Amino acid sequence: MQQNKITMLYRKFTTEIEDFLKKEPRKILMINGARQIGKSYIIRFVCKNLFKNYVEINLKEDMEGDRIFSEVQTTQDFYIQLGIAAGKKLGKKEDTIIFLDEIQAYPHLMTMLKFLNQEGRYRYICSGSQLGIALKQTPSTPMGSIAIKQMYPLDFEEFLLALNVSQNTIDSMREQFYNEQPLSESLHNYIMKMFQYYLLVGGLPDPVNHFVATQNIQHVRNAQKDIIELYKIDASQYDEERRLKIRRIYDLIPSNLENKKKRVVFNEIENKKGKYHNNYGEEFDYLTASGVAIDVRAISNPHFPLRESEKKNLLKLYLNDVGLLTLALYDLNVNAILNEEKSIYLGTVYESVVAQELHAHGFPMFYYDNKKLGEVDFLIDDFNSLSVLPIEVKSGKDYYIHSALNTFIGKPDYNVKKGIVFNSKREVTKKNGAVYMPVYYSMFLDHNVKEADMVLKLPELPE
Length: 463
Description:
This protein is of the alpha/beta class. 41% of the residues lie in helices and 17% in strands. A hairpin with a 2-residue loop joins strand 12 and strand 13. It is globular, with a radius of gyration of 24 Å.
């Protein structure tokens, strides 16, 4: 029987790992991110290319198996066990790297990283799916010795590349976005079809690989269901009561997003009145720190930078991957997405994919919540203009109706330069401070300050 060929997916994060390992020998790179987003695969690929000797140790597997690293107390203990596990694979520092996968399984080794780094016998790289939680529980966090980078599922640009859309085409599209110009009608139709596929498949590598190899949605959905079950099993570290709360909050995300307000309803988590955010703080922290959910917090009086005005008692949660959302909402019925059924409201799906893009591009996200003036889907910091950028996401024909956004843009004290309304139409138009553009252009939003502004000119010393 012929097997489907799985090829390596292009990931932008590959360059980040390569650059770090080449340019930063004084620190250990620690990569955080949800399970099943391809962390181990990318690390393995990069390290094998850069180092003659590559050693990989999965500490979660060790914890569930021989536990040879469970009682390690000193660096000498570690080297002894490493020698047993690695055999003849160890060489000199310049040609040997040790990959400690799922390091959160052993918090005591996270503390030891500082001393392993100081002794400098080998290079190290680590990854984990719950590092944010583990670092909080670590008695002595090795800050100064580690650098933490976050990895995400494939964004839409990476998805296009997986489906053989050329980088030149994407770069041309990026220029059109920067110039606030539309694509040609034929290219727009093609990219929108790809965008619809992305809504179904999402950006988790296993479902993407199945789609690239077979284009079979049944295979994609089966892979997605396995991942959801894995996410739920991962919460088993907690006692039964807390584990049930975590699963309940996670299961409620799709239905919450289908509501008008889209925010988490705290009373529904245990079907008890009088519940607030503080009652579930640890559960929310787990879902976001483990990377399986994206949180967007409310702001009623927005000023740059947005973190100074956030309200912690109101939040929206999105699944980390839009493919998991469309699985929950439509299962195998692809017509809701591909045929844009009139009876189906796709606003939730469009909004979720924009949240996923913004999250993957490093934006802390907020939303505008004002009882008198209404709500705006997303607020992000625009570091180039030092102002707030409001974003609305629309899926239907009434995409130009957004009274809250109009009011938001029109308030002088908010210092808003412009707003964006993402929708399914090809045209790019401007009206009353809002720019209307196709939803796939969300993949080009970034928070990088222009490189020219990063170089500071030293003043001349006065005579």
